[in-house]
Amino acid sequence: MLEADHVPVFSDQMLISFVPGWHWAPRSHVLGVGILSVTLAMWRLEISVAITPETASLPRDVTFVGEANFERLLKKAVEENWAELPIGECIAKVAIAFQGTKYQTFPMEIDDHIEAPSVNLEGMDCWTFFEISLAFARMLKTGKSDLAPQDLLDQIECLRYRGGECHGSYLDRLHYVSEWIFEAESRGIVENITNQVSAYSTRIRFRKIFELTSLWRRYRYLRENSELREPMRELEAAVERLPVTHLPKAIVPDVEAKIQEGDILAIATGQDGVYCSEVGIAVKKPDGSLRFMHAAQQFEKVFLDKTISAYLQENRNRIGVIVVRPKE
Description:
Blueprint: E1 26-32, E2 35-40, H1 60-63, E3 64-65, H2 67-79, H3 87-97, E4 102-103, E5 119-120, E6 123-124, H4 126-140, H5 149-160, H6 177-186, E7 190-192, H7 194-197, E8 202-203, H8 211-214, H9 220-224, H10 229-240, E9 245-248, H11 252-255, E10 264-269, E11 276-284, E12 290-296, E13 301-304, H12 308-313, E14 318-326
Parallel strand pairs: 3-5, 4-6
Antiparallel strand pairs: 1-2, 7-14, 8-9, 9-14, 10-11, 10-14, 11-12, 12-13
Helix pairs in contact: 3-4, 4-5
C-alpha cells in the first residue's frame, strides 16, 4: 500500500483537474539554486459516503493498542527531554525506541465499515512505523505537560487524512506514500528535498497505480464495501498524474551525506502498482553511519537496516529514493 524528470513549472493560477471531484493546485513555488520547488495545496475529494452519526466511532480498545507501551515511551522521552531536540533527532529517538517491535500486516484496517484514526504500538508495518514516529515527535513538540493516548491519535489524524481530518470514510485516508508526501508538504508538515539533494533527480513517468483496486480482497474496507472501489480507482488515477521525482540509486552514494537523521525515506520501485515499495526513517548509529530503519516484513520486526545506498543495491526493483524532511 505504498509506494522521476524535474518537476514542471506552474503558474499561480493554474488548476489541474485529474478526475471529477478531484482538484490539484500548487499553493506556491520557490526557486532556489536553479531548482524549482513546488508546494501543492491539499486535494479535496467530493465523494459522498453515507455514515450515520450512530456508527461513526469505534471503541478505544480498537483504535489504540499498546497504552502501556505509550506510557513507557512517554516517560523515557520526558526524562531525556526529547522535546528539546531538533525535530529530526527527536523522530530518530522515537524510531529507535520501536526497534524490535513486531511486524504486522494491515494495522490500519481495523473495522469493516468505519474509518478512524488508530495507533498500534505492539505491531507495525512500514507506513505506521514512520507515521507513528513522526506523530509521537510532533506530539512531544506541542509542549503539553499532560500528554495522553488521545494526543497521539490527534497527531495521527492530522498526518493520515486529507486536510488532517477523518470523517469516518475510508476515502478520507491518504493511501499512497507519494500522495501523502504532496499532502503533507502542502500543509507545511514536511519538505520534499529530493530535488535539492541532487540536480539529477528524475521524474517517474508512465506509472500505473492500482495496488488497492487490483488487490481489493486484501483490504478489509474495500472487500466489505464494494461501492468504495470505483472512487478508489478515481483516486489512483489522480495519483498516477503526480509529478513524483526520485534520486536514482546510481547517484545515491554521491549524495547520501546530504541526508539527515530523521528524514523520511521512501523507496521508489520500478514496478507498476505503486510509486514506492517501502518507507522508513534515516537513523544514525553510534559509529556515525546513517542507516535505513523500517518495519521490515522480511525480518518480521522494526529493523535497523543497511545504509540507504546499500539497501537500494540489494534489489533491482529498488530504483531510487525520495527524501522528505520533517519541519519543526
